[in-house]
Amino acid sequence: LLGTNGNGKSTLMKCIMGLVRPDRGHLSLTIDGQVHDLTKLSPEMIVDLGVALVPENRLVFPGMSVLENLLAGAYQRGDKKTVAEDVERMFGRFPRLRERAAQLAGTLSGGEQQMLAVARALMSRPKLLLMDEPSFGLAPLVVEEIFRIVADLHKDGATIFLVEQNAHMALEVAHHFYLIEQGRISFSGTPGALAEDEVIRRAYLGSSKA
Asked: pTM of the predicted model, to two decimals?
């Protein structure tokens, strides 16, 4: 989902997670062939459906350790054995988190916090992973690493809905994209459906009109 600031990208993410309620209408999501009206569900129920959010600005729990943050991502799961297995799986995917397992999350670098935010979301075993501006505020080399992680997650079978202002990077990993302008979806299609310079211009500048 591409678009300039203030067009509703993050608000849509929060609506999907039940954190914000639409003023009118309905928001539905189809998972495993079953349609769910998200406007009638609590955030906890939406997580139980298999949806997880990597929020804008990461929002890790700064006073908790890396390990405690990961366990918080699995708070609705009751099987301690599989939770422990998934913690180990996250440490395998993100080796730097293993090195910092006992470290307070608030003392991590921005890139490490982003990795932790992704790993924490994955601890709920989501079928749909929402990622809101994962490259925000990160150095270019770290951004490249984060997008490599996004591509790897997809190769492993994850369905990802990505909100991103870095249109160049987003178009490299996306299979389908939407442009949002003034709160409305103005275009939907594959990355090749519009010329990249047109996508970039509209994503950064808004309307394509002269």
From this structure: 0.86
